[in-house]
Design goal:
Shape: globular
Largest sheet: 4 strands, mixed
Radius of gyration: 19 Å
Number of strands: 10
CATH architecture of one domain: 3-Layer(aba) Sandwich
Strand order of the largest sheet: 2-1-3-6
CATH class of one domain: Alpha Beta
CATH topology of one domain: Peroxisomal Thiolase, Chain A, domain 1
Distance between the termini: 23 Å
């Protein structure tokens, strides 16, 4: 992983290259059979497409099969899944999944416009509604339907920021409390600044090989025991239930079945908390909380590293940062830290099974991975 920040002195190829080379070094590898680059906005914000060939050339893998994978904010998770399928099918013996995004070189209006392309262009973006506004509408409806107050969501931000203090790659190293949450500037009612994740420049990478190709090096062997992807409508108003992430439910159910586990077996859950409302909806859709009861887990202290369902253990999108196309790969790397026992400061005791869920759009594409240690 690279630190998430405003990297004015680095291009998108440099940031991606740092993560890719670090992953190869970590695995003591010189090359791979395939390269899958997760990214959403390089064409819009960086005037650069064809990232697969660009990165392959940059890191000394010229000639290697390489492509860019785009699934909005779920691009990173999608790239990991494509790399996994390439290796699991036997077509490749090794594949590198790299997620990268460089978002701070453009003015906020351009970045906001780029993010809005994850929504329905005809029926949402064309009406002038921003991505944060869409999530605000969902949160308004959630508060109305289930009777929660806005302040009931404070523990999600408090947990994420507290955990990010121990993550050297995190964008925000600032502790917050319930009082700060209550006073935070409103962005789109009822979403305030501490409900929303920050953008940034960053990249993360993972190397995938067959299980029997992993040499014993004194570290726990991490396997991908479950992987699934599902879709829903881009436009929220087209869904049967705007307060239910059906693609999260479907992809999680498939991943659980593949891994032979259920929600009670998950030791760590790196969810897609782009906004605090999405954290609550994800917990419900994946079976950790009853419908409408996601905030209860946070209020009862169950989401902290010592709780029943630890989430955002390295800061999550909220405080680690959300370089959109890279986020899904950061989640996988953070699970590997937990399962290797190297998540200093926020290590979940005895963590053996972790789940990562990466969301594209407001729930249109959702990729779920389950990792096991040992």
């Amino acid at each position: 992983m690279t630190p998430i920040s405003e990297h004015w002195d680095k291009s998108i190829r440099e940031i991606a290259g740092e993560a890719a080379l670090a992953a190869l070094a970590d695995a003591n590898r010189q090359g791979v059979d395939g390269l899958f680059v997760g990214n959403m906005l390089s064409g819009t914000l960086n005037r650069q497409e064809n990232l697969g060939a660009l990165l392959a050339d940059w890191i000394g893998l010229r000639g290697t099969e390489a492509v860019k994978i785009e699934a909005a904010c779920g691009s990173g998770g999608a790239a990991v899944r494509q790399a996994l399928m390439a290796v699991a099918s036997g077509v490749m013996d090794s594949a590198l999944a790299v997620g990268v995004e460089k978002m701070t070189d453009t003015v906020p209006a351009t970045t906001t416009g780029g993010l809005a392309t994850a929504a329905d262009s005809d029926w949402e973006a064309a009406q002038g509604v921003s991505f944060v506004a869409l999530n605000a509408l969902v949160m308004q409806r959630y508060l109305h339907e289930y009777g929660w107050t806005k302040d009931d969501f404070a523990p999600f931000a408090v947990n994420a920021h507290g955990n990010a203090m121990h993550n050297p790659y995190a964008r925000l190293h600032e502790k917050v409390d319930a009082r700060a949450y209550k006073k935070a500037r409103m962005v789109a009612e009822p979403i305030n600044l501490l409900d929303a994740s920050p953008t940034g420049d960053g990249a993360a990478a993972v190397l995938i090989v067959p299980v029997d190709a992993v040499a014993s090096n004194g570290r726990p062997r991490i396997t991908i025991a479950g992987s699934a992807s599902a879709t829903d409508t881009l436009a929220i108003h087209d869904r049967r239930d705007p307060l239910w992430l059906s693609a999260a439910e479907l992809s999680a159910r498939k991943a659980y079945a593949q891994a032979g586990v259920g929600p009670a077996d998950i030791d760590v859950f790196e969810l897609h908390d782009a906004f605090s409302i999405m954290a609550a909806l994800s917990l419900e859709a994946c079976g950790f909380a009853e419908r409408g009861q996601g905030p209860r887990l946070a209020l009862d202290g169950e989401i902290v590293p010592t709780g029943r369902v630890p989430i955002a253990t390295r800061g999550g999108l909220k405080a680690r940062g959300h370089p959109v196309g890279a986020t899904g790969v950061y989640q996988i790397c953070e699970l590997v830290e937990q399962l290797r026992g190297t998540a200093t400061g926020t290590q979940v005791d005895g963590a053996r099974i972790g789940m990562a869920q990466n969301i594209g759009g407001s729930g249109a594409t959702i990729v779920t991975h389950i990792l096991k240690s040992g």
